[in-house]
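Bumping my old thread because nobody answered last time. Still need a sequence for this structure:
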C-alpha cells in the first residue's frame, strides 16, 4: 500500500503534544465516515439520526479527563478510562457500555505476552476508545472506514469489529507458537538439547502469559453480550457470541500448546538421559572387562624377587594368552547375560 498505512504492520503514530486525539470519524451509517479535528470532535452533536462519532485518544495526554467530565461521565468511570488498571472487564452504566479490552502487542521488540490495553466508553452515539501505547487494531478498523469497504455502520457494529479484530490478531501469535512447537518436534536434539529446552520454556511462558490475560478477556466479552444496553442490537450480540466462541477455542489451543510443550520437553530430557545412561553403561562394561586384566598385569608387574616365569622366555606369551582367554570368557558371559 502506498498512500495508506498497512494496518497489519504499521503501528499508529503517537498523538500530537497539544491534544490527545489520534483520530476521529463520524460514521455515516453506510460503512464510511468523515474525519474530524480535535476541537470539532469535542463540540460534535449528531446532525441526523444514525450518526455515530468514534474518537480514539491517547489517554496519558492532557485534556482527556476534562473532556470526559464535559460529557458528564461519572468520576469512577473517568478514572477507570484513564487508569493503568488494565485487567479486562466490562459493565453497563445506565445507557452506556464501559469496557477494558486487551490485545497482543505486535510492536517491535515486544513479547507476545506483553498485552496492550484499550478502554472504551459508548452511549450509542459516541464511542470513545483510549490507549496508552501504540495499538494497531483501531487502525485496521479505521482503514476499513476510510476505504469504504463494508465498514461498521453503527456503534454496536463498531465495537464488535474492534473486538473481532483484536481476537483475530491473537490467533496469529498462537499459530506462530504452534509452528515453533512442530518444528521442534521434527528436530533431533543432538548437541542443541539445551537450546531447544530454552525455546520450549519460552513458549510455555508465552502460553501462560497469554492465557492469564485472555481468560479475563473472555469474561469481559460475555459481560458485553449479556449486559450491553438496548442500542447494542441483536445481531451485534450474535457477533460478540461468535467472538466469544473463537476466543474460547484459542484458549483451548493455548492449553494444547502448553501440554505439547511439556510433552516435548519431557521427551527431549528423556532422550538426553537415555543417551547419558547408554554412555555410562558402555563405560561400565569396558571397565568390567579390563578390571581383571588390570589386576593380573598389575600383580605380575610388581617388583618382587622370585616371581615365576621371570627367566622363562615364554612367560610373556603365556600371560598374553591368559588375558585373551579371560577377555573371551567375559565377553561370552556378558553376551549370555544380555549385557551386550
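Sorry it took so long. Here it is:
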Amino acid at each position: 500500500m502506498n498512500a495508506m498505512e498497512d494496518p497489519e504492520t504499521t503501528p499508529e503514530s503517537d498523538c500530537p503534544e497539544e491534544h490527545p486525539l489520534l483520530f476521529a470519524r463520524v460514521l455515516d451509517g453506510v460503512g464510511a465516515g468523515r474525519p474530524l479535528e480535535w476541537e470539532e470532535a469535542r463540540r460534535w452533536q449528531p446532525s441526523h439520526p444514525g450518526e455515530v462519532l468514534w474518537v480514539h485518544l491517547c489517554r496519558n495526554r492532557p485534556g482527556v479527563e476534562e473532556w470526559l467530565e464535559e460529557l458528564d461521565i461519572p468520576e469512577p468511570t473517568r478514572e477507570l478510562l484513564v487508569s493503568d488498571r488494565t485487567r479486562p472487564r466490562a459493565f453497563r452504566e445506565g445507557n452506556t457500555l464501559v469496557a477494558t479490552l486487551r490485545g497482543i502487542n505486535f510492536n517491535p521488540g515486544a513479547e507476545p505476552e506483553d498485552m496492550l490495553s484499550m478502554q472504551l466508553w459508548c452511549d450509542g452515539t459516541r464511542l470513545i476508545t483510549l490507549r496508552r501505547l501504540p495499538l494497531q487494531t483501531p487502525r485496521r478498523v479505521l482503514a476499513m472506514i476510510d476505504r469504504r469497504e463494508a465498514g461498521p455502520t453503527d456503534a454496536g457494529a463498531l465495537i464488535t469489529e474492534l473486538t473481532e479484530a483484536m481476537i483475530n490478531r491473537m490467533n496469529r501469535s498462537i499459530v506462530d507458537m504452534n509452528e515453533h512447537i512442530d518444528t521442534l518436534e521434527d528436530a533431533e536434539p543432538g548437541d542443541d538439547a539445551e537450546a531447544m529446552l530454552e525455546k520450549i520454556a519460552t513458549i510455555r511462558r508465552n502460553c501462560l502469559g497469554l492465557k492469564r490475560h485472555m481468560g479475563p478477556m473472555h469474561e469481559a466479552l460475555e459481560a458485553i453480550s449479556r449486559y450491553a444496553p438496548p442500542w447494542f442490537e441483536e445481531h451485534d450480540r450474535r457477533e460478540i457470541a461468535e467472538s466469544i466462541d473463537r476466543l474460547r477455542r484459542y484458549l483451548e489451543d493455548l492449553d494444547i500448546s502448553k501440554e505439547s510443550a511439556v510433552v516435548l520437553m519431557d521427551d527431549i530430557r528423556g532422550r538426553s538421559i537415555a543417551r547419558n545412561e547408554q554412555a555410562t553403561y558402555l563405560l561400565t562394561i569396558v571397565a568390567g572387562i579390563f578390571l581383571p586384566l588390570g589386576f593380573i598385569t598389575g600383580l605380575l608387574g610388581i617388583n618382587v624377587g622370585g616371581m615365576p616365569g621371570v627367566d622363562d622366555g615364554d612367560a610373556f606369551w603365556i600371560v598374553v594368552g591368559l588375558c585373551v582367554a579371560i577377555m573371551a570368557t567375559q565377553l561370552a558371559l556378558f553376551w549370555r547375560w544380555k549385557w551386550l
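The beta strands are 21-27, 33-35, 52-58, 89-93, 96-103, 116-122, 126-131. Let me know if any region looks off to you.
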